[in-house]
Amino acid sequence: MTTPTRVGVILLTYGSPATLDDIPHYLRNVRGGRPADDALIAEFRRRYALIGGSPLLRITREQATALQATLNRRHPDGPAYHVTVGMRFAPPSIAEALAEVAPTSDAIVGVILSPQYSPILMRGYIAALTEAVNALQRDDLLLAITGDWHLQPLFLQAVAQRVREGLERLPADVRERVPVLLTAHSMPLRVVESEPDYIAHLHETATEVARLAGLPADRWMFCYQSAGHTPEPWLKPDFADIMPELRAKRQTHVMIAPIQFLADHLEILYDIEIGAREQAEENGIQFARTESLNTAPLFIQALAAVVEDTLEAALARAHATTGA
After folding, report:
1. Residue 108: phi, psi to the nearest 5?
2. Which of 26, 47, 113, 214 has the highest CB neighbour number within 10 Å of its CB?
3. If you write DSSP's letter for every residue of 52-121 in order, what string do you get?
C-alpha cells in the first residue's frame, strides 16, 4: 500500500429533516422503516418549528469546508484533501458523499462525529460506508473509519474553552459558584449493560473537560438529556431531575455544557435552549448554556488530528498486512 496522494474525508453524522414536510420520512428512516404515529410527527413538527428548522446540515458543511482548508494547509506537500458530508438518516446520504469524493481519491477517511465510540450505536455508519466502498470494486481505495476519540487533546481543550467562555459571560459573583452540568445524550438502559465502555468514555470526557476548565469537583456533575420517546428505561439522571435538587440546595443559577454534541441541532436548540431553560426557570433558577463547538478553530484542529491519526493507523495496518 503506497501513501495516498488524494484523500477523501466524509464527516458522518445523524442527519435532520430539511423541512417540516420531511419529518415523516426522516422519522421513518430513524425508526428502521417503521412509520411514526401522528402524535410523534406532530411533536417533532412543533419542536423543529420552534427552532426554525435544524441548522445541522449547514453547520456540518461549514465544518467540512474549514476542515478541508486546515488539512490542506497542514499538508502543503500532500496528500490533497477533499472533505464532504454524509448523513445516516437524511440527504446527502453516505453513499452520495462517497460518490462525490471517491473518483478523485485513493483513500477515504470516514469521521463519525461522535467522540465517544459505541460499536452498537456507530455500526450503522460503518456498515453504510463500507458497503458503499465495496460497491465501487476498487482494490486501490483504502478505507479508514474513526473509532473512539473522546480524549483527543484538542477536542477536550475546545470543549473546556467553551465552558470557560460561558462562565465569563456570567456576572462575576455568579461565575465562581454556578453549578455546571456536563451533559450527553441519554440512551436506553440496555446500552449500559451491553457497552459499559461507551458510558465510561462519556464520564472520562466529562472529567477531563472539568479539569481543563478549572471546575472544582463540587461545582460540576455529569448527567443525561434528550431521552427518547420509548417506554423502556433510559439513563439517569436527566437534567430535568437535577433542577429540583439545585433548588433544594438554594442554587440560583445553572450552566449546561454538552460534551458529546459537536454542532447546533435539535438536541441543543430545543432540548437544552428551550426545554432545559423552562425546567430551570420553573424551579426559580437562571439558565445559561455553553456555545456549541460548530466551527471553532480549536475544534477544527482537533478534527484534523483525528483524520491524520485515523489515516496513519489504517496505513500502518495495510503495510503490516501486505508487507509493503
Report:
1. -125, 130
2. 26
3. TS--HHHHHHHHHHHHHHHHHHH-TTS-EEEEEEEESSSSSBHHHHHHHHGGG-SEEEEEES-SS--HHH
The predicted-structure confidence for 233-245, as pLDDT tens digits, reads as follows: 888 899 889 999 9
Could you tell me the residue ranges of all domains in the chain?
Answer: 6-16+54-147+295-322, 153-289
What is the CATH code for 153-289?
Answer: 3.40.50.1400
Q: Which amino acid is at 6?
A: R
The structure's pTM equals: 0.95
Q: Would the pLDDT of 324 be above 60?
A: no
| pLDDT of amino acid 22 | 97
Residue 284 burial (CB count, 10 A) = 12
Distance of alpha carbon 157 from the chain centroid:
16
For residue 130, the SS3 value is helix
pLDDT digits (tens, 9 = 90+) for 167-205: 999 999 999 999 999 999 988 888 778 888 889 999 999
What is the pairing mode between strands 107-112 and 6-13?
Answer: parallel
Round to whole Å and give the CA distance between 140 and 146. Answer: 20
Range with the largest mean pLDDT of 19-28, 238-247, 315-324: 19-28
Domains 6-16+54-147+295-322 and 153-289 share a fold: yes
CA-based nearest residue to 319, from 142, 117, 159: 142
pLDDT at 7: 98
Residue 29 φ/ψ, nearest 5 degrees: -60, -45
Q: Which residues pair with 6 in a beta bridge?
A: 80
Segment 54-95, tens digit of pLDDT: 999 999 999 999 999 999 999 999 999 999 999 999 999 999
* Of residues 9, 27, 17, 30, the one with CA closest to residue 57: 17
